[in-house]
Amino acid sequence: MPSNVTVIAPTASLMVNQFDDIFKKIKVCSYARVSTKDEEQLTSYESQKEYYTQYIKANPRWIFAGVYADRGKSGTRVKNRTEFNQMINDCYAGKIDLILTKSVSRFARNTLDTISITRELRRHGIGVIFENDKIDSRDPSSEINLTIRASIAQEEARSTSANVAKGKRMKFEKGEFSFNYKHFLGLTRDKITKCYLIIKEEADVVVLIYEMFLYEGKSCSYIANYLNEQGIPTPSGKKNAKWTKVVIESILTNEKYMGDAILQKTYVKNFLDHKSVKNDRVLPKFHYENVLPVIIPKEMWYQTQAEMDRRKKIGPKYSSTSVFSSKLVCADCGDYYGKKLMHSQDKYRKSYYRCNGMYDNEEKCETPSLTEEQIQNKFIRAYNILQGNLPYVLEETNLTIDTLVKSLDQLRINIDSYVGELKDLTQKTRSLLNRFCYRLDEDDEGRAQYEIYNARFNELKNKLDEEENVKYVNSCLVHRLKGFLKNLDELPKELTEWNRKAWMLLVEEGMVHRDGKITIRFYNGQEITC
Predict the structure, then answer these.
(1) Are strands 196-198 and 187-189 parallel, antiparallel or unpaired?
(2) How far is CA 258 from CA 203, 310, 444, in A?
(3) Per the domain annotation, does 301 fall within a domain?
């Protein structure tokens, strides 16, 4: 051994001698844990394993029962620590009599878990020695000390969690962000430049998903099944992973595909369970525009959101069997037209569309059945009328966009005003609580003032929520109208034959009347009856 190395005798052996039966060999294991995977922590992790392996094997009265170790795991949640749970199961299976661990904080940072687990182990005659804390759980008098140490460890975990969250928010405020691009379809990150780059093959899949949803009217379930049939890998990259409706929906609603990034959509409400919950105006969100490579144009992305909202309003009645399903409406009862088959089993098979609720009411709907060709021809006529009035359409649509943009400017002013007053009220409320030492129930004046503050706070919060909702709706409408004009410009100036894309991108709804005419309402609000 080098002359510059000094061996420090472990204190654990002194405590062990007090409780072990000298005539019986006991099965001893150790438990180690590090919460991160950085180099320094991993060195500690390996050192703990090596130290306890040699230490246990060196004791002739002990039987080495293994080393259990979790790395990159939080100490606040026991359920996610695989090795820890295996160790506890082995204890109950009679494979372990004693556990050695470095400290209470390495064992668990949740006070309740620490006490309940050690207490249950002691009930089975199994002890836990916390070496640094000089605690042996087999000693009945150790529980008070253990509770204190566990509480300190839990408070340290809470403080660490708060500091990590604060650090992330500070980065967000500076415009610094990162996301799990490894499981994000279509993007990767250059290791040297740290710039995000498009993976063309994956981006093509993303575009296909958007086009099938928006241009063909396919449902998320249909798209998922199609991708599975084609054998296209999922974002997870796992060999046997399957596309699902939820995965498709997440891709269709992810703003990163249009080049934006919304940060802090979720937050950890309870540092003990680490569960992320939706950030419903509890903490600030940070929306950064044009910070990522664009895979889906903004207009197309917002049109997709509008289409998703439309389908949600339709609910279970939505059908993707045809581009006309869930877009044609019966003027008599308001139900949707659906595709029907005539002579489905023979050579005279023919399809047509009629009101799905024709026979659901006391009075039968008198709107007619229509063939696919009839619907297509009526749309072609309406489309050509729209293009024929293009100067008027452009003028009216741009006027609507300008009006909405002005309303958004005013909404932002209102929102900033509400936020400022809410912050001021929050500060006043805190000062009031401090002034009366949080005992407002004993002072009528303080309680009355608090109720005034609280009532105004709730009033402002409701107004803020309303304004934010209107702002979101109007912002989406602006993008949708801009998308409408862009699509109108890129589509043919005149149609001589059926164009599925024009129908899907321009038409919001078609109302079928008793005389067989259809009033087609375009996404800019204009209606044309043919």
Answers:
(1) antiparallel
(2) 12, 21, 55
(3) no
Q: Quick check: is 131 in a domain?
A: yes
3-state DSSP call for residue 230? Answer: coil
Nearest-angstrom CA–CA distance, 254 and 252: 6
More confident residue, 400 or 141: 400
- Quickly list H helices, 297-344: 298-314
Strand 98-101 to 26-34 pairing: parallel
CA 310 to chain centre: 21
* Domain end point (choices 291, 311, 331): 291
Q: Kindly report whether the global pTM for this prediction surpasses the value 0.85.
A: no
Domain housing 255: 181-291
H or E element that contains 339: strand 337-342
The chain-wide mean pLDDT, for the chain, equals 81
Judge whether residue 167 has pLDDT over 70: no
Q: Is residue 341 part of a domain?
A: no
Q: Measured between alpha carbons, how far apart are the two ends of the chain, in Å?
A: 98
CA-closest candidate to residue 371, choices 331, 334, 400, 328: 328
pLDDT of residue 9: 40
Query: Does position 386 have pLDDT exceeding 70, yes or no?
Result: yes
